[in-house]
């Protein structure tokens, strides 16, 4: 589908109910170019490793996230949590891998670690934030920056 076809479909269907029909070409272009849409992106192994080393607020007494995951992999009473912990260790330690939280089994692994008390809800939130970027609606549609003239032509 061409860029203009994508833009025309977006403007006509208005799937997010932005109100394009009541907007000028300038306003519609502005709406499409506003950075306000979240998209899940893969977390790199380097980012995951850095994240896993954190979490120890006091620096001396509280184990890091990695240490808690490592301990859970060996000692947790739940087989599901032990398995999720072992998988997490592999993801964290393997260079060149990514963690895509858009995949339900990957998010399930993180959820198991939270339910099992290995990670806190705040730590999960921090991990999800690492795997989220905010983009424009135009980028979400696969369109580059939209100008008022593009809107006029697509309408």
How does this structure look, described?
With 155 residues, the protein is mainly alpha-helical. It folds into two domains: 3-37 and 135-154, no CATH class; 43-130, no CATH class. It has nine helices and four strands. A two-stranded antiparallel sheet has the order 1-4. The two termini are 16 Å apart. The mean pLDDT is 93.
Short note summarizing the structure:
With 155 residues, the chain is mainly α. It has two domains: 3-37 and 135-154, no CATH class; 43-130, no CATH class.
Oligomer: single chain
Principal-axis shape equals elongated
Largest sheet: 2 strands, antiparallel
Kindly report the average pLDDT value.
93
Structure classification: mainly alpha
Radius of gyration: 21 Å
Number of helices: 9
Low-confidence stretches: none
Helices and strands, in order, run as HHEEHHHEHHEHH
Number of strands: 4
| Major β-sheet strand ordering | 1-4
Number of domains: 2
User: What is the distance, rounded to the nearest whole angstrom, between the alpha carbons of the first and last residues?
Assistant: 16 Å
Strand content: 5-15%
Helix content: 55-70%
């Amino acid at each position: 589908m061409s860029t203009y076809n994508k833009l025309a479909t977006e403007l006509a269907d208005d799937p997010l109910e932005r109100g394009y029909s009541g907007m000028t070409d300038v306003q519609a272009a502005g709406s499409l170019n506003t950075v306000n849409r979240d998209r899940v992106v893969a977390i790199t192994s380097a980012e995951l490793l850095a994240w896993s080393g954190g979490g120890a607020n006091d620096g001396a007494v509280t184990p890091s996230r990695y240490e808690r995951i490592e301990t859970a992999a060996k000692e947790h009473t739940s087989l599901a949590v032990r398995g999720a912990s072992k998988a997490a260790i592999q993801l964290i330690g393997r260079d060149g891998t990514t963690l895509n939280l858009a995949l339900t089994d990957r998010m399930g692994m993180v959820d198991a670690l939270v339910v099992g008390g290995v990670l806190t809800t705040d730590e999960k939130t921090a991990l999800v934030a690492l795997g989220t970027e905010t983009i424009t609606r135009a980028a979400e549609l696969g369109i580059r920056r939209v100008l008022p003239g593009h809107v006029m032509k697509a309408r």
